[in-house]
Amino acid sequence: MSAAPPERADAARNRRRILDAAARLLAERGPTGLAPDAVAREANVGVGTVYRRFGDRAGLVFALLEDRDARFRAGFDATRTAGGGKGTDGDPRTRLREFLHALVDLVVDHLDLLLVAESASPEARYAGRPYREQHARIRELITAIAPDADAEYLADALLATLAPGLVAHRVRERGFDPSRLKAGLDTLVGGIAAGVTPDREPPGPP
Amino acid sequence: MSAAPPERADAARNRRRILDAAARLLAERGPTGLAPDAVAREANVGVGTVYRRFGDRAGLVFALLEDRDARFRAGFDATRTAGGGKGTDGDPRTRLREFLHALVDLVVDHLDLLLVAESASPEARYAGRPYREQHARIRELITAIAPDADAEYLADALLATLAPGLVAHRVRERGFDPSRLKAGLDTLVGGIAAGVTPDREPPGPP
DNA sequence: TTGCGAAACGGAGAAGTCTCCGCTTATCGT
DNA sequence: ACGATAAGCGGAGACTTCTCCGTTTCGCAA
Fold first, then answer.
1. What's the CATH superfamily of B58-196?
2. What topology is assigned to A65-196 in CATH?
3. B9-55 belongs to which homologous superfamily?
4. Of B150, B164, B166, which has the smallest distance from its Cβ to A187's Cβ?
5. I want to staple A194 with a disulfide (CB 3.0 to 4.6 A). Which of A42, A150, B117, B194 is the partner?
6. Per-10-residue mean pLDDT, chain B, length 206
7. A165 and B125: CB-CB below 8 Å?
8. Residues of B in contact with A121 (CB under 8 A)
9. Do domains A9-55 and A65-196 have the same CATH topology?
10. Statement: the CB of B123 is under 7 Å from strand C
């Protein structure tokens, strides 16, 4: 099942052009500047080409987000691996909490772009690569913490907490501080550990 | 500060007309039929009037949803009050679980309309009356279960689990059964109870 | 090379959402 | 009753997003 034949040279070139133009407009004019029309003009390309390459406005925005997600992922893994240990290696509960805290910062940092994405297509988030990878990572850690839990469900539940619209509402309308989001996630993680493996030993430290 | 002066008679009449027309179109043509243009025509009213009354497409859809939410709320409270006891009165944990289970059904039943609403405005959900009331109700029950927890945060977290886009993804793309959503919520509620109220030993982080 | 089919391009215009503003209507004080 | 005034109305058209399809380009094979 090799499926996808490679992109033709002109197509690849235009994809790059469009992404570059979009990044430029985003930096210069904010998320509002990402109108497909404007991007096409900036990239010296027809509107049709934008749609052929990215499907719709949401696709364009998600492509930009994937870029940032890749950078985030690389940065996160790098500091964890190389960072002189940080002393927490191995304990899945700590690792899960650290990952979630990093995600909170990621979401808060890119809130504007994420809101555009969610607005352009509220369902697309769950189908995209970033979500799938975050979900897989969290699911594994949950399984390590609470083997009997429905890890797939719980991973979605933790991530649901970071939906852009909700975060924006909490932070902007209700005055939440990001640290409160992190503390809340800690509670949820604690609950998962405590609530599902109550039998044997409490999941205490060594 | 009495604020809002009452709506003029013609305004109220048109609001009704528009809502009725919208409900009719929804029944006949599905959520796609809710184009402001079409609704205006069906209601014998100018497009401008639709926008004056409801602000935007999202506002129109949310108005329809509030109606259904009111019905849901009435039905839920009725069965709980009159329903021959059901034997569970008073225990907040059971009450919370029952409420959440009912919400799962509500969301699944109205998924299509909720998706349109979320798509029209991903943030509006959190500002609307249904969300606020559900949130308040859940928050109180959580406080009864775990007085030291950040009930406001946790209420959002439980409701985040029911975001239309996520539910649609789980049910339609990943084949979740609604009962799995209910079971997952039970786990989360259990975790809240176990993780935060130190019945025995705190499942203590350092 | 040259020819050919598949892929990609471009941009006019369809479709949908929303705004603007001149005109109409309701309400209230006199 | 009767203006005065604020509220509401309607729909043309601006603006955005997306589609459609005739034309161009690419890549392969003879």
1. Tetracycline Repressor, domain 2 (1.10.357.10)
2. Tetracycline Repressor; domain 2 (1.10.357)
3. Homeodomain-like (1.10.10.60)
4. B150
5. B194
6. 77 97 95 95 97 96 95 92 61 96 97 92 93 98 96 98 97 97 97 65 42
7. yes
8. 119
9. no
10. no
